[in-house]
Design brief:
The complex is a heterodimer.
Chain A lengths: L7 H21 L7 H21 L7 H27 L9
Helix pairs in contact in A: 1-2
Chain B lengths: L2 H6 L8 H36 L1 H8 L4 H26 L3 H31 L16 H37 L9 H26 L6
Helix pairs in contact in B: 2-3, 2-6, 2-7, 3-6, 4-5, 4-7, 5-6, 6-7
Classes of the chains: A mainly alpha, B mainly alpha.
């Protein structure tokens, strides 16, 4: 079996980047960016997730089938979050007659 | 013939060992996708209520200790690093390194759970646990504040439960590794156990900013 073996250097660089991003998200959270505090926090979290998934979980060496399954999972998570929130966020946008 | 021979055997439904391993990995990913949906529901509940009760959630969130949260995040990232090195050790057939890295992963996971237990205990002492004795200073909105802590305890509690399960898996892998069951041609359990461990790490990567950091700029 020919498995792709990544170097310790690659893993160490990913690990250090993850630590730097943790420090970054902690420090950025003290600055008032208005609504963009949430955006920044989630953006950094998504980057960290991608690093863990692609390198530590070897997703970049995975087969197309595995990538499709993971992508499908994220798609359904997106449906869950976007469709549900689109209901809650838009409530009250239009007046309801008789209310 | 011992059990090892049986474990290594290529099951008849697979054509090659590579295919067999691929299916094991895929199976773990399918399980993790169900876990994404499981935690996804909680993240959705958090998003809806945070939007509705932004003020109370901000106040409640700021009672959490950011330094402890950040350090614990680093501890968990360290454990993911040692886990990936354990998988690498298994890939190249280094039994000694595999054992060392598995022990380190178990220890770091233990540190994370210990810190979490300390934090929860603090919350009990501060009367920040939802229930009859709940009290959050500085807001009349005690209900929404309790809602934040209900979500906090549910999400961090379920995350910690996954960590406990992960610790059990790691102990099993350690026992098997010690017995010399894993070789470069068969280390699927280490690989699959690693996927689970990293997934639990990813859940925390989102829990940390959402629970601890989201209202820090209003402090």
């Amino acid at each position: 079996m020919h498995e792709h073996v990544d170097s310790i250097k690659t893993y160490t660089l990913v690990f250090l980047t993850l630590l730097i991003l943790t420090a970054a998200t902690t420090m950025v959270s003290t600055i008032d960016l208005g609504p963009f505090n949430v955006v920044m926090a989630l953006l950094i979290a998504v980057v960290k997730m991608m690093l863990v998934a692609l390198f530590f979980m070897h997703l970049r060496h995975s087969t197309i089938l595995t990538k499709v399954v993971v992508g499908g999972g994220m798609l359904w998570l997106g449906i869950l979050l976007v469709l549900s929130l689109s209901d809650f966020v838009t409530r009250g946008w239009l007046p309801v007659p008789g209310k | 013939m011992d059990s090892r021979t049986e474990t290594l055997a290529l099951r008849e439904q697979f054509e090659t060992p590579a295919q067999q391993k691929e299916i094991s990995t895929l199976g773990m990913w399918v399980f993790l996708v169900t876990e994404i949906m499981f935690f996804g529901g909680l993240f959705l509940a958090y998003a809806i209520y945070r939007r509705q009760f932004a003020g109370a959630f901000a106040l409640a969130s700021n009672t959490l200790d950011v330094v402890i949260g950040a350090v614990n995040t680093a501890v968990l990232l360290c454990s993911s690093y040692t886990m990936v090195l354990a998988v690498r050790a298994a890939q190249i057939g280094s039994r000694k390194a595999l054992i060392v890295f598995l022990i380190l992963t178990i220890l770091l996971g233990g540190v994370f759970l210990g810190v979490k237990a300390y934090e929860w205990n603090q919350k009990f002492e501060e009367h920040h646990v939802p229930g009859p004795s709940f009290h959050l200073e500085g807001t009349p909105a005690q209900g929404p504040a309790q809602l934040f802590f209900s979500l906090y305890f549910t999400m961090t509690g379920l995350h910690a439960l996954h960590m406990v399960v992960g610790e059990g898996l790691m102990l099993f892998l350690l026992w098997q590794a010690y017995a010399g069951k894993y070789t470069p041609s068969y280390y699927t359990p280490v690989d699959v156990g690693g996927l689970y461990w990293h997934f639990v790490d990813i859940v925390w990567i989102f829990l940390f900013p959402l629970l601890y950091l989201i209202a820090r700029h209003q402090h």
